[in-house]
Protein: DUF2179 domain-containing protein
Organism: Amedibacillus dolichus CAG:375
Amino acid sequence: MMRNWGKRDIVSIACVVLGSLLLALNIQSFVGTGGLFPGGFTGLTVLIQRSFLKFGGIEIPYSLVNFALNAFPAYIGYKTVGKKFTMYSIAVILLSGMFVEIIPPITITEDILLVTVFGGILQGIALGVTLRGNASTGGTDFISMWISQKTKQPAWNYILGMNAVMLAVAGYLFGWEAALYSIIFQFCSTQIVNYVHVRFKRMTLFIVTRSPDLVIEEIHSSTHHGVTRLEGIGTYYGEPRTVLYTVVETANVKGLVNRIHELDPTCFINVSKSEAIEGRFYQRPIE
């Protein structure tokens, strides 16, 4: 048990460091080159920085603003989402701020469309890496995770809508072209996150098997989900068959299917996407 926890923590720390570095690189390259505004509190930090510089001639550190903005959401996340999740997220906030101060501005390309699309993709990858490490970039990510836990559905598209208010302010202050390109940037980022982050996505499994007891035990032990058992007759050979029905998290599907095939090489499994479910469903808690 301790070794499993150790491995999980090592993966989380590696994802926190890598995700923070990618976020900082994106800010100092694509975001800076295109004058874009990322989503969430990262974008709000950039907006405040540029506002102080344009209207007051004051250059304030990225890390200082970002830390101040995230203080209260981090407290809320600690109380409602998960303690370990919040601590790792705070580490992302601290590290990304430190990396932004260390990494010099980088211009990869000045083509605004390329900057927007690939910047959004890199942002989505960075967010996906941090989420894989049981962390986030803070701010609106805490809100998104809280909504996801309450609704049992991915909430990243809701956050995209919330960012529209910030972009409206940015467009008014700095020009609508940058704000409109930032919408494309955030859309690309959101789609990448939706693709790589599967925690709140579910799949339905219909399993036709000759070894139902072994398969049921495996599903119970590896996923903690229940199973509905139906007895039937295979019409091709007229032999008795058991049909098992269950819904599991998408992340569990590949390993579970492989294990079921080991237990019953002749089984037939139909895997389909579950758009929505109602009723009790075990969700592994965020730590």
